[in-house]
Specification:
Layout lengths: L2 H4 L13 E2 L16 E4 L7 H9 L4 E4 L18 E4 L15 H10 L6 H7 L6 H11 L5 E4 L6 H12 L4 H14 L1 H4 L8 H5 L2 H6 L3 H12 L5 H9 L3 H11 L2
Parallel strand pairs: 2-5, 3-4, 3-5
Antiparallel strand pairs: 1-2
Length: about 260
């Protein structure tokens, strides 16, 4: 598969960086997400001069960093001139503490919330309600602060949920959102398919390695189910969660679709 031709990959960046744009994805009403407005990927750290030049060319107005504060020390983003930078953690534990995917943080989440077999789905669905980062994302879109770059550390889980939220808001079908979400596994295939030799065999045979380093459709389906629970339509979810009435949704779709 030619990622550069089919999935919004930005040439000049390694595939592992998972950096792509959402332009060109079809909405259910036959329109398409406008090109050059919505980008997703990993943190903008350690960029070389040419990569910085490419990022400058995005014309970013906003960078939304979904990492926990502990993930940013010594790994700060490159912020182009003219871009606002906002770091708002995308994930929290039950006590309201910022959470990353470190072993300690995951263990803490498990003790307070979930069955280990359902960990990733639970983490994903925890992002869909009363989440400050997702509300900040929608506020940026309403204010027209695009082009926008959305990221966490690897650009796959927190970023994947946020990108799915944006696409759902724009009326993209669940099937198309899933296809975009699963591109992460193609971008990160080299890592997923080559686990360290010292890993216990059960980690790879159980699928745990792939799930922790790629993405799994089941987790995104859990997000859809969480959004739809108690709501007759997806529009009702956006009205309840973000206060977006029909006119506000239409305005956003007119701004970001063509």
């Amino acid at each position: 598969m030619d990622l550069a031709a089919t999935s919004g990959h930005i040439p000049g960046f390694p595939l592992m960086m998972n950096l792509r744009e959402l332009g060109g994805i079809e909405s259910a009403d036959g329109r398409y997400v406008r090109y050059g407005l919505l980008y997703r990927g990993a943190a903008l750290t350690g960029l070389g001069p040419e990569q910085r030049r490419i990022v400058d060319g995005f014309g970013l107005r906003c960078i939304l960093d979904l990492r926990a504060e502990t993930e940013t020390d010594g790994r700060e983003d490159y912020v182009p001139e003219g871009a606002e930078y906002h770091r708002i953690a995308g994930m929290y534990d039950a006590a309201g503490n910022e959470m990353d995917f470190s072993p300690a943080a995951v263990a803490n989440f498990l003790t307070m919330n979930n069955d280990p077999m359902e960990l990733m789905g639970a983490l994903y669905t925890s992002m869909t309600h009363s989440n400050p980062a997702m509300h900040a994302l929608i506020d940026c879109l309403i204010a027209g602060k695009a082009p926008l770059y959305l990221h966490c550390s690897a650009g796959k889980d927190r970023t994947g949920v946020a990108a799915a939220l944006v696409l759902a808001l724009l009326g993209v079908s669940d099937a198309a959102i899933v296809r975009e979400f699963l591109l992460t596994n193609e971008y990160r295939a080299e890592l997923i398919e080559n686990p360290p030799a010292e890993l216990p065999e059960w980690v790879t045979s159980s699928g745990l390695w792939a799930r922790m380093n790629g993405v799994d459709e089941r987790d995104l389906l859990a997000v859809f189910a969480s959004m739809d629970e108690g709501h007759a339509t997806r529009e009702e979810y956006f009205a309840y969660e973000f206060g977006l009435d029909r006119a506000a949704l239409a305005a956003l779709r007119n701004r970001y679709l063509e």
